[in-house]
TrEMBL record:
Family (UniProt): Belongs to the copine family.
Domain VWFA: 307-506
Swiss-Prot/TrEMBL keywords: Repeat
UniProt xrefs under Gene3D superfamilies: C2 domain
Gene responsible for this protein: Cpne7
Designated name of the protein: CPNE7 protein
Keyword Disulfide bond: no
GO cellular component: plasma membrane
InterPro entries on file: C2_dom (IPR000008), C2_domain_sf (IPR035892), C2B_Copine (IPR037768), Copine (IPR045052), Copine_C (IPR010734), VWF_A (IPR002035), vWFA_dom_sf (IPR036465)
GO molecular function, one term: calcium-dependent phospholipid binding
Length: 558
């Protein structure tokens, strides 16, 4: 994956291949679904599955739409798009019964469809028949998937709507209103952007604020027409039309700050029939906030420094460093695996750190003067300043500390993760995107303190840091894959999930015969995404963002 290699960008030219991979928004609708319910129509829900190592894994699922055989789902599925990979997707439609989990009973299965992300992206809109088990057609059922690529510098907007004095459509109670926003495309077709929740029994509802990307709201064009429709919800799927109004994102922006914008909610039929008809209520935009989405380059160019810490495993399982079979053996003619991994990753990170000073720590050894076991000692033996000058300084400290220490154990890495996390937590309090921390852990075996390590990683996922673990030597590293949340979400022993996936684990042996850049590319590929995810979550902008006028930001093609 050349998602975002930091590797090839010593000079930060704008063309440096640093842009985070594309994200694609997928919207789904179905037609002529099978009717599985005897009394009313099916209540469809869509599951999106992605193939990973030959297994189908659920990525996300849509909302359930009550009693509707031609549903248009409001849920937007977000998928990472890699140009150079075949990414297989499977959409499965189920009739939901609310109580049981969706997708458990065959009789609730309304059909499935398989395709690739590439096909949807290339065609922009794919309509395919739905199939039941064993390749049988699900009647005339079809599914349509529409894709939109989100450009890197796209922003999103937060909107808060309410309505006043809506028409009452119900006999014995008040209307149950919800609002839909449609974008009117160049071919006059309409694309559902958002559907609010239903507010029960209320003619002056206040809907929950929501976020949509500017791309999906108005294709980043402020003057694009938007149609907003208010409905009275009906549990049988026959919603009553209350009224509609047309607007643009340009007009909506008048609601920034203290201002509010309002529209008459009109029912065209009433307008023709009723002489004194004014409106069917008014809809008010209470608040609008625009959020810019920044790229990794924006942060780096804004002065964000990448601070690099290396942690080296000095446990006895490495073998006596004086013995040529030891993983720590210093061969004058060829660097050992620890040094190879350290140099490959460190050389790239040093381009992003202006002072070129790296913290270098060791764990699992008995250290002078008292020869007590330490799991977070400075390999330059300076407890007040564990930093070395450049990668060369780390290499020299490593070589000179080996004869002075006694390799011991166990392999505890939680103390070092927590140590870097404390520094990252101090940085977080500045509320600026000024320093991001990368911890490279080089180890020859599976960690002993797995529960503490999982806990430390969950804590660290809330801080400006990423962890790269390189497994050195020929041990069985199967258990280490748990820490790399790619196959599922890493959780603490108490079950708390990580906020972000911040760990990348690779066995060095897979790169033994490859060039050092291949290892660096692999372990650093995720870092730009992790940096952007952290600062986006915190809503920290780059420190000196590139000067841009608000207009050019939105409407210029990225």
């Amino acid at each position: 994956r050349t998602a975002a290699t930091m590797g090839e960008a010593p000079e930060l030219s704008p063309q440096a291949p640093l842009a985070v991979l594309s994200k694609v928004e997928l919207r789904v609708s179905c037609k002529h679904l099978l009717d599985r319910d005897t009394l009313n129509k099916s209540d469809p829900c869509v599951l999106l599955l992605m193939q990973s190592q030959g297994q189908w894994m659920e990525v996300d699922r849509s909302e359930v739409i009550k009693s509707n055989l031609n549903p248009v789902f409001a849920k937007i599925f977000m998928v990472d798009y890699y140009f150079e990979e075949v990414q297989k997707l499977r959409f499965e439609v189920y009739d939901s019964h609310g109580h049981a989990s969706v997708g458990t009973h065959d009789d609730d299965f309304l059909g499935g469809m398989e395709c690739t992300v590439g096909q949807i992206v290339a065609q922009k809109r794919v309509t395919k028949p739905l199939f039941l088990k064993y390749g049988k057609f699900a009647g005339k059922s079809t599914i349509t998937v529409i894709s939109e690529e989100i450009s890197g510098n796209n922003g999103y907007v937060e909107l808060a709507f309410r309505a006043k004095k809506l028409d009452d459509k119900d006999l014995f109670s008040k209307s149950d209103p919800f609002l839909e926003i449609y974008r009117v495309d160049d071919d006059r077709s309409e694309q559902l952007v958002y559907r609010t929740e239903v507010v029960k029994n209320n003619l002056s509802p206040i809907w929950e604020p929501f976020k949509v990307s500017l791309n999906s709201l108005c294709s980043c064009e402020e003057k694009r027409k938007l149609r907003c429709v208010v409905w009275d919800y009906d549990s049988r799927g026959k919603h009553d039309f209350i009224g509609e109004f047309f607007t643009t994102f340009e007009e909506m922006q008048k609601a920034m700050g203290e201002n509010k914008v309002q529209w008459d909610c009109m029912n065209p039929k009433y307008k023709i029939k009723k002489r004194n008809y004014k409106n069917s209520g008014v809809v008010v935009l209470l608040d609008l906030k625009i959020h810019r989405v920044y790229s990794f380059l924006d942060y780096i160019m804004g002065g964000c420094q990448i601070h690099f810490t290396v942690a080296i495993d000095f446990t006895a399982s490495n073998g006596d460093p004086r013995n040529s079979c030891s993983l720590h053996y210093i061969n004058p003619y060829q660097p050992n695996e620890y040094l190879k991994a350290l140099v490959a990753v460190g050389e790239i990170c040093q381009d992003y750190d202006s002072d070129k000073k790296f913290s270098a720590l060791g764990f699992g050894a008995r250290i002078p003067p008292k020869y007590e076991v330490s799991h977070d000692f400075a390999i330059n033996f300076n407890p007040d300043n564990d930093e070395c000058e450049g990668i060369q300084g780390v290499v020299e400290s490593y070589q000179s500390c080996l004869p002075k220490i006694q390799l011991y154990g166990p392999t505890n890495v939680a103390p070092i993760i927590s140590k870097v996390a404390r520094v990252a937590a101090d940085e977080e309090r500045t509320k600026e995107a000024s320093q991001y921390f990368i911890l490279l852990i080089l180890t020859d075996g599976v960690v002993t303190d797995m529960a503490d390590t999982r806990e430390a990683i969950v804590r660290a996922s809330y801080l400006p840091m990423s962890i790269i673990i390189v497994g050195v030597g020929n041990a069985d590293f199967t258990d280490m894959q748990i820490l790399d949340g790619d196959d599922g979400v890493l959780r603490s022993p108490k079950g708390e999930p990580v906020l972000r996936d911040i760990v990348q684990f690779v066995p060095f042996r897979e790169f033994k015969n490859a060039s050092p850049t291949a290892l660096a590319k692999c372990v650093l590929a995720e870092v730009p995404k992790q940096v952007v995810e952290y600062y986006s979550y915190k809503a920290f902008p780059p420190r000196c963002p590139q000067p841009k006028t608000p207009d050019s930001d939105l409407s210029s093609p990225q």
